[in-house]
């Protein structure tokens, strides 16, 4: 049995449904399932996992890996629930005292997370020179006076030199035994945004432990010896051990999974992807088979951060979006659609009903049209008109969103995925064609199942004679981080290298961003 091709399970937890797929060694989908996402998320995960295992039967012993994309971290921040208390430590006095840590945070989130904040001497200039040596005694005095579950350490220009953060991390580990979140591993340039991301990361350690424990336990309960992985926000994977250290990297994994799954299922590397769910529609752009990343700071739960996220535009349109005489949404029946929509025998008009009335429905929509036609016999003329107008409004929303994401390029195809993809028309202005790949309704789970492991480095280097050697070192560090995340060392490649010259410095310098990715190690 050990010689049989290895199977993989991809699971993606969405706002309405939790999707699961089983892929064989060649990437073919051999089982798939959709189950409603439950309030605590974990039960929906177990139900979707059980559904595909039942379809596999005795073949489940061949499962070697399980990849999970989850909304746990995002939900915890948005709902201010399950977050740890963080001691927030900035190495940057006296240069950065004018704007204290967490100054721009919403009051309720700051109250839930912060165990105390301090700015102590330390940090570097942009060219790598020290501002001052770290005051380790000041660090001790601060930590002696707070009760925290974790510590977030942010040093000025740590992407240029992480020396001070590493020094303080060693001290905290040796003397206090607390987990430490260090900013050079999480964000890029931009002190406040990088600090915010680092604090959120530290606050999510408990949530990450709950997720990974739940996944590991679910696999063990079902007798699966598969190795678990979590999806990251750039469409790649990391081991559960890596996720436990960098849980903030799982935020945005859902849209990234959909984009990667769309590329895999369609065979198209450069396209606009429209993922229509039950509650919302996410639009993103594929560039070389990977999500186009956002160039702007990303706001999570009212907090600006600068870690890498897919460039996603979300609109309030989904299969469960409620339809009324004055318009559509933004509210949705969500996972209750199977009870409340007209096509399922309910009495709430939704976008699914409007699409079916317009002649749009998925291939497996058994009985939908017949049930709707039965209801339409007794439907008022006003409601008939309401359903018709809803489709026109939704189409306008999609056209406008596509135009905003296309940046004027009209030669790219559009890949329609998600359980509500049937809502989209077959012709959309601004794209060359609309592609509807097989298994599009579970593209997000497919994206989790086929993902690579990755690592990245964002740093500042001298533009002098040693530039080439420094860039090679940055490539090696990015590759090493990919291996730490679970990649096979023999298969790691540099997939992105960006150099940006920096002006107004005493010595010429460049900002370098390197991303390495590779298949998972066996």
UniProtKB/TrEMBL annotation:
<dbReference type="InterPro" id="IPR043129">
    <property type="entry name" value="ATPase_NBD"/>
</dbReference>
<protein>
    <submittedName>
        <fullName>Hydantoinase/oxoprolinase N-terminal domain-containing protein</fullName>
    </submittedName>
</protein>
<dbReference type="InterPro" id="IPR045079">
    <property type="entry name" value="Oxoprolinase-like"/>
</dbReference>
<feature type="domain" description="Hydantoinase A/oxoprolinase">
    <location>
        <begin position="194"/>
        <end position="452"/>
    </location>
</feature>
<feature type="domain" description="Hydantoinase/oxoprolinase N-terminal">
    <location>
        <begin position="8"/>
        <end position="173"/>
    </location>
</feature>
<dbReference type="Pfam" id="PF01968">
    <property type="entry name" value="Hydantoinase_A"/>
</dbReference>
<dbReference type="Pfam" id="PF05378">
    <property type="entry name" value="Hydant_A_N"/>
</dbReference>
<dbReference type="InterPro" id="IPR002821">
    <property type="entry name" value="Hydantoinase_A"/>
</dbReference>
<dbReference type="InterPro" id="IPR008040">
    <property type="entry name" value="Hydant_A_N"/>
</dbReference>
């Amino acid at each position: 049995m050990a010689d049989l091709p290895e199977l993989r399970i991809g699971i993606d937890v969405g706002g309405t449904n939790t999707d699961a797929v089983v892929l064989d060694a060649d990437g073919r989908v051999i089982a798939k399932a959709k189950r409603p996402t439950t309030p605590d998320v974990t039960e929906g995960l177990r139900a979707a996992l059980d559904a595909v295992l039942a379809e596999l039967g005795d073949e489940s012993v061949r499962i070697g890996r399980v990849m999970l994309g989850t909304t746990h971290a995002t939900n915890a921040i948005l709902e201010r629930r399950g977050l740890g208390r963080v001691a927030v430590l900035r190495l940057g006095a006296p240069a950065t005292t004018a704007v204290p840590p967490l100054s721009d945070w919403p009051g309720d989130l700051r109250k839930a997370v912060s165990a105390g904040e301090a700015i102590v001497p330390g940090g570097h200039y942009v060219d790598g020179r020290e501002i001052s040596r770290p005051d380790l005694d000041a660090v001790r005095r601060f930590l002696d006076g707070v009760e925290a579950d974790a510590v977030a350490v942010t040093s000025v220009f740590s992407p240029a030199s992480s020396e001070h953060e590493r020094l303080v991390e060693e001290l905290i580990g040796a003397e206090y035994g607390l987990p430490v979140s260090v900013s050079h591993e999480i964000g890029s340039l931009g002190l406040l945004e990088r600090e915010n991301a680092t604090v959120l990361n530290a606050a999510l350690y408990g949530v990450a432990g709950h997720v990974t424990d739940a996944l590991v336990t679910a696999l063990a309960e079902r007798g699966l010896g598969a190795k678990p992985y979590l999806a990251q926000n750039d469409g790649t994977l990391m081991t559960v051990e890596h996720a436990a250290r960098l849980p903030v990297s799982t935020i945005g994994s859902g849209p990234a999974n959909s984009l990667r799954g769309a590329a895999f299922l369609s065979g198209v590397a450069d396209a606009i992807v429209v993922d229509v769910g039950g509650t919302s529609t996410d639009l993103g752009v594929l560039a070389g088979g990977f999500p186009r990343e956002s160039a702007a700071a990303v706001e999570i739960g009212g907090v600006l951060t600068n870690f890498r996220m897919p460039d996603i535009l979300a609109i309030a349109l989904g299969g469960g979006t409620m339809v009324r005489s004055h318009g559509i949404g933004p509210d949705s029946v969500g996972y209750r659609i199977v009870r409340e929509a007209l096509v399922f025998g309910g009495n709430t008009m939704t976008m699914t009903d409007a699409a079916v009335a317009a002649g749009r429905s998925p291939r497996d929509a058994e009985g939908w049209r017949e049930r709707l036609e039965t209801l339409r016999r007794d439907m008022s003329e006003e409601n008939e008109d309401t359903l018709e107008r809803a489709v026109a409004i939704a189409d306008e929303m999609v056209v406008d969103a596509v135009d905003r994401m296309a940046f004027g390029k009209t030669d790219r195809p559009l890949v329609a995925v998600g359980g509500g993809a049937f809502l989209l028309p077959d012709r959309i202005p601004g794209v060359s064609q609309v592609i509807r790949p097989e298994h599009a309704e579970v593209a997000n789970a497919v994206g989790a199942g086929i993902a690579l492991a990755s690592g990245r480095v964002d740093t500042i280097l001298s533009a002098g004679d040693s530039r080439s050697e420094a860039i090679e070192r940055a490539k090696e560090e990015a590759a090493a981080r990919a291996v730490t995340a679970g990649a096979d060392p023999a298969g790691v490649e540099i997939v992105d290298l960006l150099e940006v010259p920096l002006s107004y410095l005493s010595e010429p310098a460049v900002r370098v961003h390197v991303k390495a990715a590779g298949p998972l190690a066996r």
